[in-house]
Amino acid sequence: MILFRNILILLVLGAAGASAAEKVRVSSFSTILTEIAEQVGGDHVQVTGHVKPGMDPHDFEPKPDDLKAVAEAQLILLSAKHMESYVPKLKESSGAKGDIVQVGDQFPSLKMKSEEGEKEIEDPHWWHSIENMQRATAIVRDELIKVDPTDKADVTKNADQYLAKLAALQKWVKMEVASLPRNRRKLVTSHDAFQYFAHDYGFTIYPIEGITTEDEPSSKKVASLIGIIKEQGVKAIFPETIENPKVLTEITRETGAKVGGELVADGLGATPETNTYEGMMRHNVMAIVTALK
Amino acid sequence: MHGSPLLRALAAFVAILFLGLPLWRLTHPHAVAETVTAPVGTEGAKAIHLQLAFTQVPEKFRILFLGKELWKEPKPSAEMERDFQVPYPKEGIDLVFEIEWPGDTLSAARVQLRTPDGRNLDKTIWGKGKAEETLTFE
Known about the structure:
The complex is a heterodimer of chains A (293) and B (138). Chain A has 293 residues and is an alpha/beta fold. Chain A has 10 helices and 10 strands. In chain A, helix 2 links the parallel strand 1 (24-28) and strand 2. In chain A, helix 2 (31-41) packs across helix 6. The radius of gyration of chain A is 23 Å and the shape is globular. The model of chain A is unreliable at 10-20 (pLDDT under 50). Chain B is of the alpha+beta class and 138 residues long. Chain B has 1 helix and 9 strands, in the order H-E-E-E-E-E-E-E-E-E. Chain B is extended and about 65 Å long. Mean pLDDT of chain B is 83; it is low at 22-42. Chain A binds chain B through residues 171, 174-175, 177-183, 185, 202, and chain B through 64, 66-67, 87, 89-96, 132-134, 136.
């Protein structure tokens, strides 16, 4: 009888130990959410980041390996706000049983023009607002606790530490941006990704259209942009790519504006300097503030 | 000393008044409202008035404007006010506040700014021990 009892105790303890060691499997389709899940989950999670730093999430399409990981995941994190157009396909073809969390859909959106320019859609680049990052961290924390409540203490502690880092980063960004007069906070850019950033730190965005494509823009369009840059006293412009250097040269010559540093727009960058959220934000803020001063 | 006691009393009163005024000014810096030129480019500078009130007198306090020191008070008092000349575009200005209070209790600073066009803007900074905050006045 005693022997039976001891065996039973050993079995129960063994099962508990195995369960404690088992990590929550997370599939993330955003480099930003991958970082949050890793930071908040710590040793309790095994995160598969499908979109890697430096990749354009707009162009990402899941492959068979991605579907396999999704099928086995207990938690699937999506950036949302229409970023992952493949979601219905992902659900159907992977047979995902884990909780699919559309993180970005759980906080307010700014609007942007669709690629066709016909209608207004939700701007998916919510992570350029640190406040949104704080919201996303709380969402990921709560979802991880829901999947495995036994990790609650550690996950909460990790989330608090990450939130404190974000608060310190917010303070730094505000102080850096404060060194730039508010009437110089004009962001002339070809990329629509910085609306949330502009909203939080008092910038106005003037879109560059037609100078970063191979097509020759009309002289009227170039003249209009030159007029805006001169009128607004803009010191630098931030084209995403420079596929039309002739036009860009004309604009910088006519206006005296310089070409600002490259901004990391669609998630974490590929370089060691920009492959963390803090690194990416610091890089973008320094590039913008330095160029516009 | 000769002369009428009345004259002597009057002379003593004038002397006390004469010495007392600078002493009172020195011990009540909050009541001094003087124009201070901002240590930044004053092109298009306009007058603003800043008034501060602390729940607890801070040990250290300074305000930065466009990355440069605008106002530093080595011995702050519970209430202070000053006039400044700063560039004030229609988009407004950002002021960075650095405050250090003694101890770790929750303290607050009320910041009132009168804009060049006469509007009164009111904000509060909270902190335990210290606060570093950027306030926007539009």
